[in-house]
Amino acid sequence: AQKVTQAQTEISVVEKEDVTLDCVYETRDTTYYLFWYKQPPSGELVFLIRRNSFDEQNEISGRYSWNFQKSTSSFNFTITASQVVDSAVYFCALSEMSGQGGSEKLVFGKGTKLTVNP
Amino acid sequence: SAVISQKPSRDICQRGTSLTIQCQVDSQVTMMFWYRQQPGQSLTLIATANQGSEATYESGFVIDKFPISRPNLTFSTLTVSNMSPEDSSIYLCSVPRAGGIYNEQFFGPGTRLTVL
Q1: Which of A48, A91, A108 should be substituted to probe chain B, the one whose Cβ sees the most B Cβ atoms within 10 Å?
Q2: Which of these, B61, B69, B64, B62, lies nearest to B82 by C-alpha position?
Q3: SS3 content of chain A, % helix, strand, coil (to 5)
Q4: Which residues in chain A have their CB less than 8 angstroms from residue B56's CB?
């Protein structure tokens, strides 16, 4: 079965430090999509990025960057020059075809709680 | 992006009672999803609700405990039946961007449920 592992349960950094959140996935699908979501203390899930399995180019968006490596089944997320507002729980997710009735679904990792201290 | 609202935003309920959570989307969507997020945990898919058909439940979730309605393309309800303290969670509905599951999902703000 598909699986997403975020080994880091909690990370604490000081403002302006760089931080990398790890995500390792397992899937037998040749076509799949990976996602990162942010959940601030308010609780609402915010979409950050989607990456398909055929596109291994790294992506940068402002202070955020993502490193997708199929060879190691990893999709890591780096925040450069972290800020207090980056404090949140970050979830990595994988889209898959559910075994029940062929429906599609997202499988989430357990999340990494990032705390950025001033 | 879709705008999703949920009602209630939070509730405190007594053991043995039931609560119905509403999810309203500002556009018509075929698929809607219901998730549970237990305290300090990740999101777990409860079921997929397609309009015009019965919901498809994930392993560990059953219709008697979590009945779902999907009367039209913009609305769905999830009922948490015969509640116990273990049902205390955040319940979220979501819809995929047009094109299906391989696009990002938009999530509602969640319903924070506490069962005493």
Answers
A1: A108
A2: B64
A3: 5, 55, 40
A4: 98, 100-101, 103
Under the banding of pLDDT at 50, 70 and 90, the label for residue A102 is very low
Query: Is the separation of the CB atoms in B77 and B20 below 8 Å?
Result: yes
Query: Tens digit of pLDDT for each residue in A66-75?
Result: 999 999 999 9
Contacts of A94 in chain B (CB under 8 A): none
Asked if A94 and A75 count as a contact pair (C-beta separation under 8 A), the reply is: no
The percentage of residues in chain B with a pLDDT greater than 70, rounded to a whole number, is: 95
Residue in this structure with the two tokens 């506490």, named with its chain if needed: B114
Angle at A92 between CA A81 and CA A28, to 5 degrees: 140
- Distance, CA of B65 to CA of A29 (rounded, Å): 32
Q: Which of B46, B112, B114, B115 is nearest to B78 (CA)?
A: B46
CB of A36 closer than 8 Å to CB of A90: yes
